[in-house]
Amino acid sequence: MTKFFQKNPQPANRPILGTLEIGRFIAASLVVMTHFFPDLPRFACAPAGAVLGNIHTPGAIAVQYFFVLSGFVMMTAHRRDFGRLASVPKFWWRRACRIYPMYWIGLGIICYYLFGALTPVYALKLFLLQPAQVADFIGPAWSLHYEVAFYLMFGLCLLPYIGRPLLAAWVFSVVLCWAPASFANLFPASLLDFLRWLSFAYAGHFLAPFEFYFFAGLLGGWVFACLPLRLGGSLGLLIVGLAVLADYVPALRWGYSYGDPMTAPVTGLGFAAIIVGLANLERLGWLRFGATAQRLGAMSYPLYILHTPLILVVDSSFGWLRLGTVGLNMLAVAGFLALYLLIAIVTFALDQPLQRLLRHLSRREKNVSSGPASIEVSI
After folding, report:
1. For the CA atoms of 236, 241, 243, 247, what is the dihedral angle to 10 degrees?
2. Rg (CA), the chain
3. Looking at the DSSP assignment, which residues form a beta bridge with residue 44?
4. With DSSP H G I counted as helix, E B as strand and the rest as coil, what are the percentages for the chain, rounded to 5?
5. DSSP tally for the chain: helices H, then strands E
6. Structural domain of residue 127, as residue ranges?
7. For residue range 77-131, what is the model confidence (pLDDT) as tens digits?
């Protein structure tokens, strides 16, 4: 098993920013704790005390961070692909290879237990992660529907001639859908009515408030890739981002809620400022991370998408178990460690070799990304 932990989870010619890898691992862990600890009382024998002091974790703020990080990575890794027709299918292929294999494994586990609830159309929507409202078998997969919508749109924005205008029109449409009436009234009512009808009828995942997080990440990625920030600028962005989040986090119920739609642009920019500040401090050499950060980052997506199917397996297999307070606390610690160990094995024995195989099949012979900021990050 040691060899799995000794392998570099990414090719040597694709530098990794450790700050982002650690950040997404922490965010994935917050989501895991949001689902893991509330599930434990099912094993309690009455009366039982609180599990680990009745821990509650802010999972919503972790997903917001993921969305911003996704936009940041898309811009830094594909900034030079704008206007290149051949880059569009390559981009879509890489994104599909990143998110679907682990998702399909998790979906297969869930379907073993819930197969009777499937219909052909419903199964196809789940299988493809269609950007539409679907009752997901895997809880965290709701965010992947938005990721798929973002990948589809961003891929189109890479097209020659129409790509950049399409990106501008997309940003404008989302802003107009959710802007205060004082701003929306500056434009024809028929345009606003059309966008709202389109959003509710067909394009809800393309014009949702979550898009603001992606856009903030895109802006942050452009700043990181194009502006030569020094130490002062990096620290300034970091401080501003932290101040913005500190100011707005009460409106997000301290990270437990997504808040009002118009808080998304501000909190998204706050996250983007933090990401750019930390990433640039690392690029300047003020922060240094080793291979451990890369390994933690590699584990984050399998951890994010597989933990609820694995919890279901445990619930179904050991539902008869009844424990007191001490036993529940021991189960919480042991279960959490076992989950991370299993995810590490899945990551380095399955997911990473599979990613290398898929990259080989795609016959990518050269890296057309932006160099030092080239990073492989999904949600």
Report:
1. 160
2. 21
3. 323
4. 70, 0, 25
5. 15, 0
6. 2-361
7. 999 999 999 999 999 999 999 999 999 999 999 999 988 888 899 999 999 999 9
Cβ within 8 Å of residue 246, ≥6 positions away: none
Phi first, then psi, for residue 48 (nearest 5°) are -130, 145
DSSP of 229-240, one letter per residue? --HHHHHHHHHH
CB burial string 340-350: b at 16+ within 10 A, e below: eeebbebbbee
Question: By the 8 A CB rule, do 247 and 290 touch?
Answer: no
369 domain-assigned: no
- Residues 195, 177 contacting (CB under 8 angstroms): yes
The two structure tokens encoding residue 113:
């237990």
102, part of any domain: yes
Assess if residue 60 is contained within a domain.
Answer: yes
Residues of the chain with pLDDT under 50: 1-14, 365-379
Q: Which residues, including other chains, have CB under 8 Å from residue 66's CB and lie 6 or more apart?
A: 24, 27, 143, 304, 379
Largest CA distance in the chain: 67
Q: What pLDDT is attached to residue 358? A: 87
Residue with tokens 């802003």: 175
pTM: 0.90
Length of the chain: 379
* pLDDT of res. 366: 47
The reply to whether 377 falls in a domain is: no
DSSP string, 110-175: HHHHHGGG--HHHHHHHHHT-SS----SSGGGHHHHHHHHHHHHHHHHTSTTTHHHHHHHHHHHHH
Q: Please, are residues 106 and 138 in contact by the beta-carbon 8 Å criterion?
A: yes
Give pLDDT, residue 11. 39
| pLDDT computed for residue 116 by the predictor | 82
pLDDT at site 361: 79
DSSP helix/strand/coil, 44: strand
Q: How many domains does the structure of the chain reveal?
A: 1
